[in-house]
Amino acid sequence: MGDFYQNGIITTLHNLRSRSLEDLENELMTFKKHRPMSLVLPSLFSELEGPALKNIVQELTKVPYLEEVVIGLDRADQSQFEHALEYFSELPQTHHVLWNDGPRLKALDAELRAHDLAPTELGKGRNVWYCFGYVLAAQRSKSVALHDCDILTYQRDLIARLIYPVANPNFNYMFCKGYYSRVADSKMNGRVSRLLVTPLIRALKKVCGPSDFLDYLDSYRYPLAGEFSFRTDVISDLRIPSDWGLEVGVLSEMKRNYATNRLCQVDIADTYDHKHQDLSAEDASAGLSKMSTDICKALFRKLATNGEVFSNEKFRTIKATYYRIALDFIESYQSDAIINGLKFDRHSEEQAVELFAQNLMGAGAYFLDNPMDTPFIPSWNRIISAVPDIMERLQDAVEQDNREFGG
């Protein structure tokens, strides 16, 4: 049960009472007449073989107000794509699967690459970007939500609460970010948010000085949550990273494009658990190690666009300040865990902070060594300007794939 406290500079929509799901869905059915709703599911094929997605699909079959479900499928060959079409066929909503590794979408990607407009690396950001392009091309919805496919504790009230703020025609919100408690199996999760993002934001405030952008990021209770929703109009001008910086990149774009009174966050789940990434201390290209580096780079790039000047000396100061603040946070988390009867491994928490501090310096060195780096995928407005018929061709490619291989 959340409280009513409004912290920071964006609106927080709490879960203050046990409102029935039936009541919420009935209201969303009335909103559907004015703001048709879609859901985007970015998925690896491996997630079709995992424990979470089958339950998500079964829960979505009961959702009455969604106009369309768009699934982005990565790392799948033809037989796996055919299996995915069968897997999602029980969805009663209009639904399409983007076969990102299929010849039709790869041909479109190659054409965009020839114009230097394609995503530069594989990942969730690229998958989401193509899904958003299809949503724009199909023109079936006025509001769209996105959530991950590895949520082990999924219940359909999550999507209802997530999309409600941008679907309600009496609200003025253009963007909504989901948040939730990251406690499962009697321990605190969410290490990258707890031990990297929040202490790093506080360190950057100390070293770089007052910043509306940093105050804005610090207003989000769970900035790395993979669940958010938009009015569909927002997507056209969105520039997002293709790597693990996706969530921070989306928040940055919302701050750039809209006043903060058009943005909100909503409590979407009492319990939330999903697939946990390994720390990967020995492999900087995997797990939480890569995630932490990508997030640091995304933050440094954004601050640079706001006029912040970085140097090796400043990065050393940021690292030292971050390390001290992060250790203080560990003390707070340990007390919070003890009073709630949760397990807490202080040694592993400090190991994570040490790795994140090391990766912070690596991200800073990369930033200084690559001044011409352009990590953001171009907006769909720019793509349409360069390739005017791209939307029709993207929609046609997706729907041909689904017809040809759907049996």
TrEMBL record:
InterPro entries: Nucleotide-diphossugar_trans (IPR029044)
Keyword Transferase: yes
Any GO molecular function: transferase activity
Keywords on record: Transferase
Protein name (database record): Glycosyl transferase
